[in-house]
Amino acid sequence: FDDLLTKTKFSKQEILDWWHGFLADCPTGLLDKKKFIEVYQYRYPNGKAKNFCNHVFRTFNPDMKTHAIDFQRFMCAIDITLNGSTDEKLEWAFTMYDVNGDQRISKHEMSSVVQSMFDLLGKDKRGGNNPRRHVDQIFSRIDVNQDNYVSKEEFLRGCKADEQIRTILAPHY
Questions:
Q1: Dist. CA 92–CA 86, nearest whole Å
Q2: CA-CA distance, 85 to 103, in Å (whole number)?
């Protein structure tokens, strides 16, 4: 636990509380994708969690060497999403949108994540709420060099400068 005290902003008691909850849900000490999806589905009973969870799980487990997340990796990811600075949270969000890990986001990648987010939230995806339409509008505003990719710099700048874009791409930040 000492390692987590230095790597996160959680107190020892908070880490212990998370540990007990983690073990209750994951007696093996590892959180696999199936359990991860179950937890999200419980929190969003009216939505479809699987596709969005695939994106979040990949972001929690970037090396993909295992098909499960240990407690330390889980806590470091939770720390960023709960306690991180705006930049840390937006960098984490960028990683989620950068599906293939090439340090840039294509329209296809962003559409995939936005669509999965809408599914999770049970949003209607027709007409003005079409995910692809949102992505086209976002790209027209933040793809500064118009190369049909959003770099990390463009993503961070765009999310910080435009509340509407931030609300779509990183609603909790």
A1: 10
A2: 20
pLDDT band at 90 (very low <50, low <70, confident <90, very high): very high
pLDDT higher than threshold 80 for residue 65 = no
Evaluate if residue 172 carries a pLDDT over 70.
no
**Is residue 170 over pLDDT 70?**
yes
CATH architecture under which domain 1-82 falls: Orthogonal Bundle (1.10)
Fold adopted by 87-169: Recoverin; domain 1 (1.10.238)
pLDDT score of 64: 67
Q: What is the pLDDT of residue 63?
A: 67
1-82 and 87-169: identical CATH topology: yes
DSSP string, 106-120: EHHHHHHHHHHHHHH
If you count DSSP H runs as helices and E runs as strands, how many of each does the chain have, helices first?
Answer: 10, 4
Question: Rounded distance, CA 24 to CA 1, Å?
Answer: 18
CA distance 52 to 13: 31
Where are the chain's structural domains? 1-82, 87-169
Closest CA to 152 of 63, 88, 61: 88
